[in-house]
TrEMBL record, chains A, B, C, D:
Record field: transmembrane: none
Alphabetical list of InterPro entries matching this protein: Aldolase_TIM (IPR013785), DapA-like (IPR002220), Schiff_base-form_aldolases_AS (IPR020625)
Enzyme Commission (EC) number: 4.1.3.3, 4.2.1.41, 4.3.3.7
Top-level lineage group: Bacteria
Protein name according to UniProt: Dihydrodipicolinate synthase family protein
Gene Ontology MF, one: 4-hydroxy-tetrahydrodipicolinate synthase activity
This protein's record includes keyword Methyltransferase: no
Similarity remark: Belongs to the DapA family.
EC supergroup of this enzyme: lyase
PROSITE patterns found in the cross-reference section: DHDPS_2
Pfam families assigned to the protein according to its UniProt record, in alphabetical order: DHDPS (PF00701)
This protein's record includes keyword Lipid biosynthesis: no
Length: 308, 308, 308, 308
């Protein structure tokens, strides 16, 4: 087990990396390298692979283990790498964690197990059991829309006592909840509280959040880093200006097509249009058809004009 | 139908008033007057009666109509009065609205009908049908946890075209949603966007929201007005300081007891402890038992020390 | 309070009556009389007005009270009349109940209050409070899709101890739940357990259920009575034959159009096509457009051929 | 791909086998053999491994592949073996399926992917994609409480056209839904429709269902086989008598403790008390504490007296 740092090193913009794929079973390695260099050049403070945005649960384990190794190797210590080990089977979470440790990753991220419905006491038991067995520090990952359970503020507080649990990524979108957790944890500022949805990153950082695990930073890393810095500096005018661009991305890139998967399809499609990587999506998701892709391209070009 | 104002008069802190009751069938009139004077003295920008915090759906219609008249009479034009007309039967919503108009209220607020599950097109049809028949301008009221439907950003945009629909109160707590609506409506700033949960009021005002319909303003109106003003002025240090007090209220007053009703029980109990009004709650809710009330009192006294 | 009967008089087919309307504010009285005579002639064992199928929550209170009086007067003791008093305000439930008692109705039906989310202990408190104040015996009404709460088997058992609570109508469609309640209540067979969805009436009666509160009995009362009798008699071949017709009605009449309201729109439209009453629906619902109505007519004619 | 049989061989009682474990990583092989012999001696028509009852999603892949081989080897053709391949990653589903084919299993079972929320068209695409690649015929598995999606009757009908999709196991508990699917599929009786919850097995078989995938058949296989046969023969008196025993099991074994996992904990605990196998549960679930285990034992002994 690692020692918990006095002041967390985890702050800022940590993109939840999409996973560039050639097909169901094969990484787009060239795309992966290009994407990694692109976001690091943009100034991000770390990378998070194998999250929801990375289609983690759709990938074979061979591919997940391979992605961990390839990413850590190519990053080569330039920024910390966080690795998603979310799984319904703790044995598989631990195997992924060991690969991550061997490859040089810095920390792990795990959402609650997402098949059985658990109560909060069962959730506490689960996370303590898991954290006891992980070779790297762990971020909790709140994702109620996908896991069917909210990690309640009292549960976060209880789990924060574990030496190996160092923070929370909240993707609920519910800042009333997030602010309650922030308040609950006010005595332990080294416990890092990140939000997922980029639409709320600026305001949570203004009020004490640690940063954003924002999908859009795959495309425009510098924009999100600049927005984070503006928020840290309390520069409200700059925050408003850059936040408006993020909202433009949210409306123009993530809201095409039907179904809950429009965010992922739009993001991966845009990265392809930006020349960074392939836009193949692993089953059960599928990339956009031509009509939506054309609309996406048109929106993306408009947004690019405003950003550069 | 009224003419839609170029610049909305609706901004700031508009407390969702609790309904002081002597028993199931009778208003605590003295308490009501005291409460009204208390919040107006605190500088609030309007009052909202017959919302969720006002236990509207638990009150008989005779009592609801009576409350509208008494409130408007006692307010006597000092601030605008907004009246909740949320109902599953449009005929009853219209009757409440007519009483509100006759009594001198300024605007109406309606959540979606909450028994049948509607689709978004049915929701649009419903609101247009209702707004056509209302004698005062209407705020939409998004309350998905209670009504089982979210008023989607596109639906808000579509409904905002109606001359008699002038704003939205969002009580979802989801600021990712709220920011999407703000962005969608950026061309029509006279359409007022309020949030319900006080835990997120400051940050939404910082980024363009119109204000808060915050329960805590029943107790400490000046605190919420000061926080609103700090946010409007972009005074981040003051925002952080006052927001921390609001979070203390949220943790100490609203989170006792089990079940979703802890917010309401805590708020009404605290108003009783502050000497403002009775704490009787209409069925199906019930006030706290002694143990929780003692805890509430202890927390309240701590908070009072920090506020004054 | 009434005395609880040793052997319940409530068994068989009790149609949840649609409410014939001329417009938002006016009963279609001629249609109402025709519909009442039609179902009584078909042999039903009782009538249930002001349920979900009766659009109760969409009707003004004046209209609800009027409907109770008109129905009881026209039924004139031929069969028992059950009256829905489901409301978020207990004061209004009690007023409806008093009108029902004065008009000669036999029993009341109430779903949980459907705005606030309650826990099971709060639900027990609510029903005991209500049943204490009702002048007629009460059926619980389980309708989780609309009320956001399931009346758990233990809660049913607890509430069945109240002298004024005599049965349950379960509209969940979940017969695993229904069978658990049946088993829980096996020592008190006088507590009547009805199901709502006609698709499961036959099988629940085969295994001990009291009968069905089935919408289709508005159209074809004799079919449902015959199916009930076949099930009571354990005549499996006849059950299968008649159940297949009910499933044909379910598929052909209730499944047109989009949204959860297709059942109600189909049923009311079919009654209009059968020449029984007007098909006006109260806001927020609306009757079918021409295309769906044509399809409905075609399906209805096919079904009629098979029934007669 | 296999040829679809004219008359399905899949009928009757197919226990969803619990997975006997020594610890997180190791099968209780002796227990597994004993359990297999126990249920086959009881007359069951097949076995289903790696379902929800088998804690499939909590097991490492190594263990899952091992279980498939061990089970098929020990069954040795005495009854058909169905293998659960439910997974969020199709690549892993296919790998499990290949092991199943090599080991001599008869068919596969897959619930929808349970992390991303899909729409019905996406679900159709998913199942067609999967079935195209599977070396054995597939049963759909409806489990909305765990997967967040209901396989709608129209979707079942559409998917039934695929040569490699041969039936449905419905664990929703909602027989209104199940009867709609039965009616939808009435022209293709070779498409087998099973239910999961044993509380509804008898009634669905009475009305045309193919049988039950009932957890209780791990403990008392003969009881469930007898009940199935009584239902097939339309022997209502025998059905009622045996169904009452099943309800006693449901109430006495599956309803102890808190949380949704009480069914699994009770079932596995009872198998241990019956001397069949270990009761270790894989994380995130845990076996009962002493108090609940004592209550379980007392209930089990009562039930045993009534069965033998």
């Amino acid at each position: 087990m690692t020692e918990k740092p006095e002041n967390s090193q985890y702050r800022g913009i940590i993109p939840p990396m999409i996973t560039p794929l050639k097909n169901e079973d094969e990484l787009d390695l060239q795309g992966l390298h290009k994407l990694i260099d692109h976001v690091i050049d943009g100034g991000v403070h770390g990378l998070f692979i194998l999250g929801t945005t990375g289609e983690s649960t759709s990938l074979s384990y061979a591919l997940r283990h391979g992605l961990i190794k390839e990413t850590c190797k190519h990053v080569n210590g330039r920024v910390p790498v966080l690795v998603g080990v979310t799984d319904t089977a703790t044995a598989e979470s631990i195997r992924l964690a060991e690969t991550a440790r061997d490859a040089g990753a810095s920390a792990l991220v795990a959402a609650p197990p997402y098949y059985f419905s658990l109560g909060q006491p069962e959730l506490i038991e689960y996370y303590n059991y898991l954290a006891d067995r992980l070779p790297l520090p762990l971020f909790l990952y709140n994702m109620p829309s996908h896991t069917k359970i909210n990690i309640e503020p009292d549960t976060v507080k209880e789990l924060s006592k574990h030496d190996n649990i160092i923070g929370l990524k909240d993707s609920s979108g519910n800042t009333a909840y997030f602010n309650k957790v922030l308040f609950h944890m006010k005595e332990t500022p080294e416990f890092s509280l990140f939000v997922g949805p980029e639409e709320i990153m600026a305001e949570t950082v203004l009020l004490g959040g640690a940063g954003g695990v924002n999908g859009g930073a795959n495309m425009f890393p510098k924009l999100y880093v600049d927005l984070y810095n503006a928020a840290i500096n309390g520069d409200i005018e700059q925050v408003k200006k850059l936040h408006a661009l993020v909202m433009e991305i949210s409306a123009g890139i993530y809201s095409l097509g039907r179904f809950g998967s429009s965010y992922l399809k739009g993001l991966k499609g845009a990265l392809n249009l930006l020349g960074i990587c392939n836009d193949y999506m692993a089953s059960p998701l599928h990339k956009f058809e031509k009509e939506e892709k054309d609309q996406l391209e048109s929106n993306l070009r408009e947004i690019q004009k405003k950003i550069h």
